Amino acid sequence: MPELPEVETVRRGLAPVIEGATFTRVHIRRPDLRKPFPHDMAKRLEGARIIKAGRRSKYLLVETELDTLIWHLGMSGQVRIYVPGDAVPPPAKHDHVQFDLDSGAHIVFTDPRRFGLMDLCPTEELADHPLMKSIGPEPLGNAFSGPILAAALKGKSQSVKQAIMDAKVVCGVGNIYASESLFRAGISPKRKAGTVQGVRAEKLVVAIKEVLSEAIQAGGSTLKDHRTTDGGLGYFQHNFAVYDRAGEACPGCDCDISKTKGIQRLEQGGRSTYYCPRKQR
DNA sequence: CTTTGGGCCTGGACGC
DNA sequence: TGCGTCCAGGCCCAAA
Length: 281
Hints:
The protein is an alpha+beta fold. It is built from seven helices and ten strands. The radius of gyration is 20 Å and the shape is elongated.
């Protein structure tokens, strides 16, 4: 399910298809996902021209002349794009929302677990929207740096893994990329967040930026023609160093796996963490 | 204020 | 084949 790279991949797939187009019809096939849809969502979008397909954290932001559609893919959300001329199949069980555009394109949102979310907000009030206003720095932006991360972690007693998954510290880092980033930075997921300062914080920031950027690159390669897209993982899962690899050797491992037992899995805050106890301290 | 734990949903993988 | 259990990429909220 979508972490930031997957959401960004979807955004890049959507942008050339929807920017400049106008919603002609919005089909809403159930009253809610994680939260109820705005009661007038279809009415407010139909006839509105799309200015931009944006993203903040893991939220897609479809900006129209008046309102911005705030769109979260949840755990299992997928977006399919049908360009003009494509046949749109009849709605499947979990196809909850469909957008028809004046260009003849169609966008279908599928979300079996229904942890996704859609809301509307007048564009000029977006920054004050409850879902937007307490989000921390974008991991790929210049405002996310070693000193900024160190300051955000200072005094925190929780684990660094849980801390970097807190969107107020840095947004967009989910369960997979938290493990991957910590491995790359050589930092134990169990380390107390407050002790990640100075060079460690700098290394972690670099690792997060690299891991997310590489994942976006890999995701982008799966939709070269920008015809279809989905909320899946692209090809990056083949590049996971530690995630879901308990018992395996980590990349570049030179220890005796029969003795060290390789990559370890542990549970933090009810979520799985994967790490190498020898390389991460 | 920070931190933890439960809850929201369905489906797929696995063991018996 | 079926049934139960566990697990899954996110996030909010109540409670401590």
